[in-house]
UniProtKB/TrEMBL annotation:
It is a lipid-anchor. SUPFAM superfamilies: Periplasmic binding protein-like II (SSF53850). The keyword Lipoprotein applies. Residues 44-287 form the PBP domain. The complex is composed of two ATP-binding proteins (PstB), two transmembrane proteins (PstC and PstA) and a solute-binding protein (PstS). This is Phosphate-binding protein. GO terms for cellular component: plasma membrane. Pfam families: PBP_like_2 (PF12849). Gene3D superfamilies: Periplasmic binding protein-like II. It comes from the Bacteria. Belongs to the PstS family. The keyword Cell membrane applies.
Amino acid sequence: MKKVLLVVVALMLTIGLAACGSKNESSNNGGTSNTGNAGTGNANTGGAALSGSLLAAGSTALQPLVEQVSKKFMDDAKYSGITVQVQGGGSGTGLTQVSAGQADLGNSDIFAEEKFVDADADKAKELVDHQVAVVAMATVVNKEISVDNLTKQQLVDIFTGKVTNWKDLGGKDQKITIVNRPSSSGTRKTFEKYALGTKSEDIQGSIQEDSSGTVKKLVAETPGAIGYLALSYLDDTVKTVKYEGVEPKEENIVSGNYPVWAYEHVYTKGEPNEVAKAFIDYLMSDEIQNADVVELGYIPVGKMQVKRDAAGNITK
């Protein structure tokens, strides 16, 4: 009996050890390991779905597009493990935050070289530019204003405080109220560079707002108001004014006849990690470029017949 019991115990131990070994081998070979960080999360490798989080901050001119696309991106089963948070604050804020590692994507209406100059020039070299669309800026006024065309000089006179009444521009006797963007705004820099050719003044009595949406609301509600907006913000609550007799329409923009436009940039600090790259690639896909970009009033980069560099030079 003792011999029989010993044999039975030995067999049970052998079977138990074999089962444990098989379980360990299965765990080692079949498990998934996470490598690399993406935003504040992890990006899975080995063919598994990507996961992580991204913070996109900056340009309010680009914000409507990034917000709409990010929702589609997160609803896509392929990217359901990724969370994208979108914030405004202006191009300067976006560039500063992505440079400092506080944001994964820095949205901007201006080249990084225009923000980081002199002692900060090296910061621009650390950033990688992804041009995702073209945006034009239009001068907008309250709908009750009869003026429908302004020259470059007239705009300069308005935004530097030399002209303060619409009657001096062919309109009725009414005070001009400027609704401006802060100095950190890429929309303001684009308007100053390509519409005015000079910096505007924060003159007494003018209104300054961080958000393009708020600018539109104030221009719509304030008698005598004038401001400027990306075409993606235009609707029937405000009146669009021609620039030197040229309307801010796509055919005039792509040909270079309407000069007040800029690239919409998404900057990353260095080459994007795989989660950021997945979002940028999605944003640049034909589906998004030919649908969402156009629907929201932007122009696909590939449609442009002219190119512009950081210095503002235009080439065919």
